[in-house]
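>> received
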Amino acid sequence: MGWKSGSGMSLIEVIVAVAVLGLVTVALLQLFLTSNVFTAVAGHEVASANLAQEILEEIKSVPWNQIGTARGGTADTILLDPAAGSEKGKYIGYTIALTLVDKNTGERVAGQVRQVVEYNGGDTTAGDTTAVVSLPWDEVPDCTAFNVRYVLFPWPVSGKAQGGTSNTIVLDSSLSQEDGYYKGYLIAITGGRGTGQWRRVVSSTGSTVTVDPPWNDVPDATSEYRMVRETCPYRVLEKGMSASGDLITFEVTVTYRDRGQQREVSLTTDKLRR
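>> returned
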C-alpha cells in the first residue's frame, strides 16, 4: 500500500501572498479615493460653470438703463445713474454688481456683489436714485476719487405667496420643497400686501419659510416676492467696452472651496446695446 504525497503552501508563501494582496488592495483603495476626489471637483466645476452661465444670461437680458455710472455711495448704499428711474421700490430684490472703476486707487471696489433691499426713487426733482444694499460694502463706492460702474440684474427666485403669518410666508408650491433650502436667503415683498418689506430667511420647511424680524404687514395671497442669496459666491467685472460704448464684455467668476482651497470658474459674454 503506497502513500499519497500531499502538497500545500508554506508559511513563507502564505505571507508573500497576503503581502501582494495587501499591496493590490491599497492601490485599488487609493485609486477609488482619487477617483472620488476628481468626481467631486468635476461636480463643483460643472455647478460653478452653470451658475456663471445663468448669471451671464441674466446680464445679457437687462435693459441698458440698468447699466450705469454711480454718483456716490455710503457704507450700505449707492446712488445710481438718473437713468435708473425714480419708481420707488423698483429694484428691491435685484442684484447689483460693481463692475469697473477707472483708477487703480479704487480697484478693490470693483467685483463686489450685493442685493438691493430698498430703492428710494419717488423724488424726480432731487433725482434720488439711492439703492440700499443687504450687507455693507467691503470698499465703499464713494465716487469722489474715481468713477464706479455697475450693472443691476434680477437674480431672484420669484412667485406669488399662498399666505403668511407674523413671521412666515408660504411660497409658491412649484418651488423647492427641501427643508432648509432657503435658509440664508433674503426675501422681498414686491407686490400686493406688504410691498416694500424685506427680511432674512432663518429656516424653511417645505413651502413655508420663517423670517426675522417679523413682518410689519403680514403677506397674504395677493403678495408677490423675490428671493435672493444674501451672500454671492461670484463677482462680475467689465472686461472691455467698444469705442462707442455700445458693446460691453462682462466676465463672471464663480468661486468655491475644495479641500480647503479656493477655486474659480470664469466665463465671459458680450452685451450689445439694442
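>> The helical segments are 11-61.
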